[in-house]
Write a structure and sequence with these properties.
Shape: globular
Distance between the termini: 52 Å
CATH class of one domain: Mainly Alpha
Oligomer: single chain
CATH topology of one domain: Vanadium-containing Chloroperoxidase, domain 1
Strand content: under 5%
Structural class: mainly alpha
Number of strands: 0
Helix content: 55-70%
Radius of gyration: 19 Å
CATH architecture of one domain: Up-down Bundle
Length: 356
């Protein structure tokens, strides 16, 4: 089997960078958690079964349908034990939870600011609805210079969606085990950048972050497929996870553990011959499409449409009105505007890494 040197080196590097933060989880908690919530809810409908069928038709590499997109690449025995990988979620009386709370408080001050608007744009992540799935696949469009759609890049689109099935099942196991409550429930300010998702998020534990894991996995995938843009791709992967903190829907510890899990899962994918074949086909397709130098037309307006619908359904809710008012204008954003917003914002002020 081929040696995927660029992707492998990046995985090893990201594991090294992240593991030090993750290891801290085991030192700040008081005891291991052995119970899991009775309700098994997930942000993705693909997680309804812990052992998905991996049977694939003989024409898998030539065509796919909606049923194919609900089946991942990995066999059940290849699934990593996410509970053991990330250690325990920070306990309420731990030093790490104090750090989580401090960072969440800093992030809440950004409500209404451009970086907070970007967090709203980054919020869509769900494959049970075709429209949201298409938006989810566009988060890195500006960095890679290609629109990922079922029509324009069917092989790359299929690769992302099937990989998400495996990732979701692995991440969800830890989510349900630890049952960590979301920050907008526990902090003084209950506002988020995507209040239309709040009700669903109440039934989806926060640790580790599925959004972050998927974004980091996309970063690793795209870095191998488009190595010339690796630096800005991985920077975007980091920023995508940070959007969850700014949105007030994930703790810092959720985001760090999500990145770590994604790195481990990505390396596991190369144990699957089906994944390797799909990866190589997507890589060739990407090179062909990028060579055409087509204009990137990312759907920035989706978050605004959701905010409008939510505010109309909740006319007396100040949060609904605030979010809708402060997302005005994002439908006219360009890639240049998105890059400007992301590059001009320094996350260190939120993470408390700067001198006061």
């Amino acid at each position: 089997m081929k040696c995927y040197k660029s992707s492998y080196k990046l995985v090893k590097m990201s594991l090294t960078l992240i593991v030090s933060a993750v290891v801290v989880f085991g030192t700040v908690g008081c005891s291991n958690s052995s119970s899991s919530p009775s309700d098994s809810l997930s942000a993705s409908p693909s997680s309804s079964s812990n052992e998905p069928s991996n049977s694939v038709s003989a024409t898998e590499t030539l065509a796919w349908n909606s049923d194919d997109l609900l089946v991942g690449f990995l066999k059940p025995e290849q699934y990593l034990d996410s509970i053991k990988l990330v250690n325990i979620a920070p306990k309420d009386d731990s030093l790490f939870k104090q750090l989580d709370l401090s960072i969440a408080k800093n992030a809440q001050a950004l409500a209404g600011e451009p970086r907070w608007q970007q967090a709203g744009i980054d919020a869509p992540y769900y494959f049970g609805d075709a429209t949201i799935a298409d938006v989810t696949c566009q988060h890195f469009a500006c960095q890679i210079g290609v629109n990922i759609t079922p029509d324009a890049t069917p092989k790359l689109y299929r690769l992302l969606r099937k990989a998400e099935v495996d990732l979701s099942l692995i991440v969800d196991k830890a989510k349900q085990h630890f049952g960590q409550v979301r920050p907008f429930v526990k902090t003084d300010d209950h506002q988020t950048c995507a209040p239309w998702d709040n009700q669903a998020l109440l039934g989806s534990p926060s640790y580790p972050s599925g959004h972050t894991a998927y974004g980091w996995m996309q970063g690793l995938l795209f870095s191998g497929i488009d190595p010339a843009d690796q630096d800005k791709i991985m920077q975007r992967a980091r920023q995508y996870g940070e959007s969850r903190i700014i949105c007030n829907v994930h703790w810092y510890s959720d985001v760090e553990s999500g990145r770590y899990l994604a790195s481990a899962i990505f390396e596991t994918f190369f144990q699957s011959e089906k994944f390797v074949q799909a990866y190589e086909e997507a890589k060739a397709e990407f090179a062909e499409v990028k060579a055409k130098n087509l204009e990137v037309k990312k759907n920035w307006a989706y978050a605004l449409e959701q905010a409008k619908t939510f505010s109309e359904a909740n006319p007396d809710d100040p949060e609904a009105i605030f979010v809708y008012e402060h997302l005005q204008g994002i439908e006219n954003w360009t890639c240049e505007k998105e890059l400007e917003v992301l590059q001009s914002f320094d996350i260190n002020s939120v993470l408390g890494r700067e001198a006061s």
